[in-house]
Amino acid sequence: MNVAANDNNGKDPIIRVENLAAGYGDEIVFTDVSFHVNRGEVLAILGRSGCGKTTLFKALIGLLEPKRGEVVIEGDKVLPVAEGGSQQIMRKIGVLFQSGALFSSMTVAENVALPFRQYTALPEKTIEHLVLLKLNEVGLAGYEQFLPAELSGGMQKRAALARAMALDPKILFFDEPSAGLDPVTSAGLDRTILKINETLGTTMVIITHELPSIFAIAHRIIMLDSDEKRIIAEGKPQELKAKSTDPRVRDFFNRAPAEEANRL
Amino acid sequence: MQRITEIVLKLRKRLASGTGNVPSAAGVRAPEFFLTLDHPADDEVQVSIAGEISMNSAGDVRTQLLRIVQPHGIRNLIIDLEKVEYFDSSGAAILTELGEMCREMGRSLELKNVPARIQSFMDLVDAQRLKTGAILEPTRPPNLLVQIGGGLLDVGRNGRDIITFIGATIIALAQDLAHPRKLKWDSLWNIVERSGSDAVPIVTILSFLMGAILAFQSAIQLRKFGANLFVADLVSLSICLEMGPLLTALIVAGRSGAAYAAQIGTMQVNEEVDALRVMAIDPIRYLVSPRVLAVACVTPCLTLVADLMGVLGGCLVAAFSLDLTPVAYFNQVNKVLEITDVTKGLAKSFVFGLEIATIGCLRGFQVRGGAESVGSATTSAVVTGIFILTVTDAVFAVLYYYFPVVWNM
């Protein structure tokens, strides 16, 4: 249960991405992306809008079949879910989608119970207790019987996080967790994410472009670019902000507009 | 140098006559602007604009300016903005358009005495870099050949999707039937209630009326031959063999087929289907299988209700306008209607139910995008459903006729 694996020296990689290229139809969004994620690390994937973050995210979890290259999670290759996916991998990961993607016809408790019912043969009573525990962890105790539509955006995200964490997965994937959240709720979510990472040692891959979150929780980042269609920066966020010589990276971390966008 | 103030006078008159201006009684001040024309040289025109160029007045300003630019022989157009009191984006748009026009006509446009705030506004808009082009006109559809080709490709792709989907559904159904204990019975009963018992009122009313209408219309002809009694034959056989199953299936397609397309389509848009997939839950097994099973079993039950109500409807009309007693009517029905007639209709209904649910769910999964896509998927579910239903009905008619073995089902 340690968290020290935040050094970029290849120590114990749990996710390995090799020469990945992906896109939609004829359009290639990025080519030749290679990186790894160490066990227990919080990796943030950044970039300006349109650089391919969501595409990379989908390729990592198997929602999109890459055009080239592969993603390997703990030695198993990630297969596209449309063809059944890889069962061993799906047990180990949890995914928090951008809008939560809670099943709107079921209560929050039933949403969180779904992974248990799907993967385990636990008795109903145990599942009930597990659901209560998970919802309490994310601060939603008391809201078990609510339908997703009856919750605020922040609460929906936390419920979705409880569902993603149900089976204590080794890796959690987040797609823009702070999107649409006010600063206070966003900070609360960051703190929850940090707590999970520290106590459970869960590896986390976060797509985001919220600078405060990145500096608060990311051990390491990789940055994609839509023009170059590859990774243009990799490393610790504070170091990149202070020492990077690439103007695109500096603009991003210092929240400065790019040259051609000076007018508005 | 001539000072032409005709324009000013014309404008004053137009403003006074109240064309397009809100009367001050409403508390809104009519926007005022004045254009003053000058001819510093023979081929030059200088327009001084004074007053307000806002969204309210911009239309009029533009008309006036365009009228000034039109005449031949003008080389340079100078616009003096010193006395402009109010200027917003509409002003910038007009000046940009004027600049383009002048460029096209080979004339020069110059802005003179531009106040600082207007200058910074024009900088903000960055008019120089705007691309021209008709951006608000609807895109013209491609030519006929492209449309035909695209249409054929769509049909091909559609066909392939349908076949893949049917295959996946059959596998899911087989898995569910092989492991009935793993079925979620709660959601199954819920679906049965929504697609079945909730539809009973409308099925009852529609088939009752259909039976009555059939009896009513045929009575007119049958009376000529004194064959009143045979209205019982006509109504009971048509309803049980054809009208009952088909009408019920149409109702189920409109109610349940559309609902499933909309539900699953919205789940697609909300990434709920992706979430299912990532949790290794087969969306077909989870969403489609229970719906197909439920509707396939429910539609024959509804058809039975429809058959009964249709025959009753015929009885009502027969009793009231054909001088038949209900007893005579039902005796005749008993004589002519065989159990196989009813079961043939029920067998058709079962197949109809399978088709409706499958097509509804298929269209739901084909949704990509937002509300527009969900809307067209819902429509398509009903239309495709009706089409397939009718084709199936025809196939069954042929089947029953040419294969007496099936007759004795």
Written account of the structure:
The complex is a heterodimer of chains A (264) and B (409). Chain A has a single domain (13-253), classed as P-loop containing nucleotide triphosphate hydrolases (Rossmann fold, 3-Layer(aba) Sandwich). In chain A, 35% of the residues lie in helices and 23% in strands. Chain A contains 9 helices and 10 strands. Chain A has helices at 53-61, 87-92, 108-119, 124-137, 153-164, 183-200, 211-217, 237-243, 247-253, and strands at residues 13-24, 27-38, 42-47, 68-73, 76-77, 93-96, 171-175, 203-207, 220-224, 231-235. In chain A, β7, α6 (183-200) and β8 (203-207) form a beta-alpha-beta unit. Chain B folds into 2 domains: 3-19 and 30-129, Transcription Regulator spoIIAA; 185-407, no CATH class. In chain B, 69% of the residues lie in helices and 8% in strands. Chain B has 14 helices and 6 strands. In chain B, strands 1, 2, 3, 4, 5 and 6 form a 6-stranded mixed β-sheet that branches. In chain B, a hairpin with a 5-residue loop joins β2 and β3. In chain B, α7 packs parallel to α10 (283-321). The termini of chain B are far apart. Mean pLDDT of chain B is 85; it is low at 18-27.
Provide the low-confidence segments of chain B as ranges: 18-27
**How many strand units of chain A?**
10
**In whole angstroms, how far apart are the ends of chain A?**
48 Å
Top CATH class of chain A: Alpha Beta
Average pLDDT for all residues of chain B:
85
Provide the β-strand percentage band of chain B.
5-15%
Low-confidence stretches of chain A: 1-10
Task: Kindly state the percentage of residues in helix of chain A.
Answer: 25-40%
Tell how many strands the DSSP assignment of chain B holds: 6
Task: Give me the number of helical elements of chain B.
Answer: 14
- Please, how many helices of chain A? 9
Largest Cβ-defined interface = A-B, 24 and 15 residues
Cα shape of chain B: elongated
Question: What gyration radius of chain A follows from the Cα positions, in whole Å?
Answer: 19 Å
Helix content of chain B: 55-70%
Could you give a short account of the major beta sheet of chain A?
Answer: 6 strands, mixed
The coarse overall form of chain A would be globular
